[in-house]
Structures are given as C-alpha cells and as structure tokens.
Amino acid sequence: MLLDSHGRQATKLRISVTDRCNFRCTYCMPEEGLVWQDRAALLSYEEILRLARLFVDLGVTQIRLTGGEPLLRRDLPVLVKGLKALPGLQKLAITTNGTLLEQLGPALYAAGLRSFNISLDSLDPVRFQASVRRDALQQVLNGLHSLSRWPDCEVKLNTVVVRGHNEDEAVAFARLARLHGWQARFIEFMPLGQDDAWAQHSVVPGEELRQAIDRVYPLKMLAPAGKNPAARWGFVDGTPGEVGFINSVTEPFCHSCNRIRLTADGQLRTCLFSLRETDLKSPLRQGLGDAELIARIQDAIWQKEAGHLIAQPQFERPLRTMSRIGG
Predict the structure, then answer these.
(1) Helix or strand or coil: residue 146?
(2) Each residue of 175-185: pLDDT tens digit?
(3) Domain with 35 in it
(4) Residue 143 to residues 35, 99, 235, 239, 254: CA-CA distances in angstroms?
(5) What pTM does this model have?
C-alpha cells in the first residue's frame, strides 16, 4: 500500500505523457509558449508501463493520462492498450483539450479507453479564443460530440472559472450536461501559471456557481468531495447528467486526498503544489530493480504534504507550471 504519514492511501495516479500543448491557456503558460523538454528526457512507453505496473501492484486502482496535451504524444493508443492490460487497474481515463479527439478517438476507444475529460472553459467563441489564445472552439466541440458514437463512454467537461471571464456560463454548461447526459465540472482558479495574474478576488467559489445553477435547474447532492475531487450534484427532475464542483481553494479536500502524479520526465509529485519531487527516471534508467524502485516510491508517498497553502501567507508556487506538472 502507498500510505502517507497522515494516514491517507494513494489509489489514483496521474501520468503526464508530454509537456507539449497546442493551446496557450492564460492560466497555464505565456502566449509565446514554453521551451519544450527534449523527447529523450521523457519517459518511454516501456518505462511508463513498468512504473505503472509497480504503482498498481502497490494499490493504485485508477490512472489518468494528462499533458500538456496528451493526444500530441505519438502512438498514444499503444500506451492505452498496455495500461488497460495491467491486472488490478480498475479505471483508465484521459484529460484532453479535445482538438485531436475527432481524429484519434476511434483508435483510443479501440485500445480500451472509456473515460474522457474535456477541458472547455467557455462556450462563447470570443471568450474561448481569449482564454486559450487559439480559434479552436468548433474543433473542440466536434471532438466532444464525436464521443456520442460510443454510449458506454464517460464524458466530463472541465471548466476553470475566473471572475469576470466566464462565471456567467455555469447554467449554460449545466444545460449542456442535461442535454447529453454528461458531467459539467467547475474548477476553482488556482495559482499554477507562469503569468496567470492569480488573485483571491479572481476565484469564483463553487458554491456560488451551484446556487446559480440550482435557481434554474434544482439540484440534489449525489456525493461530497473527498476520495473524488468533485462534489457531485444531480438534477431533481431526474434528467440525466450531473454537475460537479472542485472547490480546491475555498473548500480544500486535502485531508482525504488519494492522488499522486508522475511527470512526463519521470518525477513523482505527491501534491499538485509540491515544492519537491522524487526522481524515478534516473534510477529506472540506471537499472534499479523493482524492489529498489518500490522503496523509493513508498518513501516519497510517506512524506506527502498535509495540504496546499493557497491564499495563506506561507504559500509558495510550485517550481513547474501546470503544463509541466500534468493537468
């Protein structure tokens, strides 16, 4: 088991497969982009699969593939197929901006992927372009709607809400969730970009959004945040679909956090806001055996932070931006 000194067990692993991205989201990276890591610095699929097997053997039951934009990584369905074959893995998911989903979705589905999170911060073309600095809303929507060909897929929309930008779209996203049976999830704005201009007043509390939706579409609680980051709400009238609220700033759920992260270059991070990392790539490439790697992993998890310190005087931003950590 992967236990930390606060009694929490890590059961969910996010694996970033690339730091590259075809968007330039204002809360993630500067308009000119970043210097991408050399491809040789990234974990190979064989290395990812070996580490993933160790994590699953240690009790990880869910893996999520992230980036950067993970669909930019060549031959991703090969990795998906390999991960799906791991004994003991209960769920495999991906978080993507959706721009390449229409083309790559069939291959990912054939490889066994059934859970898709689509990052979508606005349904308005002008706002969308201002947020991601790309004119690609229709491309994302095409990719999103292409998933409807597979009714057994789980589809979630991830919306980062920023005061003065898109908080008035909560009802529209809820309407979209009701129409297609999806889950619309609203994520509080966090300080993770290089020049994101984060400030407390830019954070829209999830409870504020919940009340706005509830006035139009009455809601009922399905599950509080905890083992899952989103507090889930359904519609009182029984319409399919859900809304979820990831209130990381105003209602931190660190006390029950069960998530860890593996960066594209092989660094284990125990918290999104960690100031330290554990190198797994170097010992892996130096030929360390499974027992030595497991000891290194368990030691890192044991030292997992009690929680983040957002909006507190002692808060320090992580050294990596979001695209280099893994979304």
Answers:
(1) helix
(2) 999 999 999 99
(3) 12-325
(4) 28, 6, 26, 24, 33
(5) 0.94
